[in-house]
Structures are given as C-alpha cells and as structure tokens.
Amino acid sequence: MTLTLRALLIFFAALVFFFVIRKLKKSQMRVLDSMFWLLFSLSFVLFGIFPEIALFISSELGFVSASNFVFLYVIAVLVVRDFSNCLRLSKQEERINGLAQSIALDSDDS
Fold it and tell me: What is the reported pTM?
C-alpha cells in the first residue's frame, strides 16, 4: 500500500471522525449511527497505520494489491449499511402507513 493511500486513509478517517462528533454535539445524529461511522473511520486509521493488516488479508484472499482490498472493503461495508438502512426505512414506512390509517379511521368515527 502506497504512502499516499495510507495518508489519505488517515486524513479522511480523521475528517469523518470530527464531522460525526460535531453532528453528535448538535444532536443531528443518532448515537447508534455515529458508532458505525466512528468504527468505520477507526478501521481506516488501522489500515493506514498498520498496512500489514490490509496486506495480509489481501494476500489471503488473493488480491493483487492491498488497495484493491481496501476498495472492496469500503464497498462491501457500505452496501451492507445501505441494506440495513433500507430495512429500517421499510419498517418506518409500514409504521407511518399504519398510523395514517389509524388516524383516518379515528377521524371518520367522530
């Protein structure tokens, strides 16, 4: 892994960390969501400081370079996160529809 990629990983991880902390202080983000982003940025810091981790995993999985593994890691984690957000959104929409139907039935009775 090149020094440039390592520096970028650490820089953007720090940027995400400070952004998340600022949003938490302003109460614009849930604690559970912030924990995900803090741990995700921490993983970038670990890859940046200890590139041996990414090199080892990439060699075990058969990647040509560690940067390819890092890109796949980012894509995979964000796809899983998007899927979980989609499930949560679907659940919220079901609740909203149920509440709207309940309110509509209550307003017809009166």
Answer: 0.79
